[in-house]
Automatic annotation (TrEMBL):
Entry keywords, A to Z: DNA-binding, Repressor, Transcription, Transcription regulation
Protein name: MerR family transcriptional regulator
Annotated InterPro entries: Cbl-bd_cap, DNA-bd_dom_put_sf, MerR-type_HTH_dom, MerR_fam, Meth_synthase_dom
Organism from which the protein derives: Hymenobacter humi
Keyword Repeat: no
Occurrences of domain HTH merR-type (ranges): 1-72
Top-level taxonomic group: Bacteria
C-alpha cells in the first residue's frame, strides 16, 4: 500500500495542497494517518478517492454534492460520465484510478476510447505519456506498487504492439533504416512508440515529431 504526502497528492491529482486540506477538513473526503511528528500520510484509497472527486468536479458537480456520495456511488458516477477524450487531465486521472484498483477492463476501455477519438499517436502523446510521468513521480516518491505499474505497462505495450502490427509492411529495399536503443533499465515504452512512429512515417508523413516529448 502506498504512502503519499500531501505534496505527492498535489502532483498526482493536480489539486492544490490547500484545497486538499480544505476538502479534508470540511467534508472528510480523505482519511490520512499521522506520523509521530504529526505529518499527514495518505494511502492508495485516499489517492483513488481524490482522483474520482477531481473527475466529478471537473464535470461540473459541486464538491458539496460529491462529498455526500459513498465510495460505491462515487465510482458509479465516474463510470457513468461520458468520457471526453479531449479532456486529457481527466483521462489521465481516470487511468491512474483504474490502475490503483487493478481494473484491467477499465484501463483498456479508456485507452481504446482515447485512441478512437484522438488517433493512436495523439493518445500516446497527450494521455499515455502524461500518465507515465505521473507514475514516475510515484516511483520517485517510493509510493508505487510494482504490480500496479506492471499491469498498466503491460496493457500499454499490448496497444503499441497491436498498432505497430496493423501498419502496412515495409518494403525490403529503398526504406531508411534506424537503430533504436535505450540505456539499460530505461522505460522501453518510449522505444516501442518510436518504432511505431518511424514505421507509420515511412508510408505517411506525420507531425508527431514536432510535438513528441523528448524521452531517453
Amino acid at each position: 500500500m502506498g504512502q503519499f504526502s500531501i505534496s505527492d497528492l498535489e502532483q498526482l491529482s493536480g489539486i492544490k495542497a490547500h484545497t486538499i486540506r480544505m476538502w479534508e477538513q470540511r467534508y472528510g473526503l480523505l482519511r490520512p494517518v499521522r506520523t509521530a511528528t504529526n505529518i499527514r500520510l495518505y494511502c492508495d484509497e485516499d489517492l483513488r478517492r481524490l482522483l474520482n472527486v477531481t473527475t466529478l468536479c471537473g464535470r461540473g458537480m459541486r464538491i458539496s454534492k460529491v462529498a455526500q456520495l459513498s465510495d460505491a456511488d462515487m465510482q458509479a458516477a465516474v463510470l457513468a460520465c461520458g468520457n471526453d477524450a479531449h479532456d486529457y487531465h481527466l483521462q489521465v486521472n481516470a487511468l491512474l484510478a483504474a490502475m490503483l484498483t487493478f481494473d484491467e477492463v477499465r484501463i483498456n476501455q479508456l485507452f481504446d476510447e482515447a485512441t478512437s477519438t484522438l488517433g493512436f499517436e495523439n493518445m500516446m502523446l497527450h494521455v499515455a505519456y502524461p500518465l507515465l510521468q505521473r507514475i514516475g513521480l510515484m516511483w520517485l516518491a517510493g509510493t508505487m506498487n510494482l504490480s500496479q505499474e506492471h499491469l498498466l505497462s503491460h496493457l500499454l505495450r499490448q496497444k503499441l504492439l497491436a498498432a505497430t502490427d496493423a501498419l502496412p509492411a515495409l518494403g525490403s529495399t529503398g526504406t531508411r533504416r534506424w537503430l533504436l536503443f535505450l540505456p539499460e533499465h530505461e522505460l522501453h515504452v518510449a522505444l516501442l512508440f518510436m518504432n511505431y512512429a518511424l514505421r507509420a512515417g515511412a508510408s505517411t508523413p506525420c507531425t508527431w515529431a514536432r510535438t513528441c516529448p523528448s524521452r531517453s
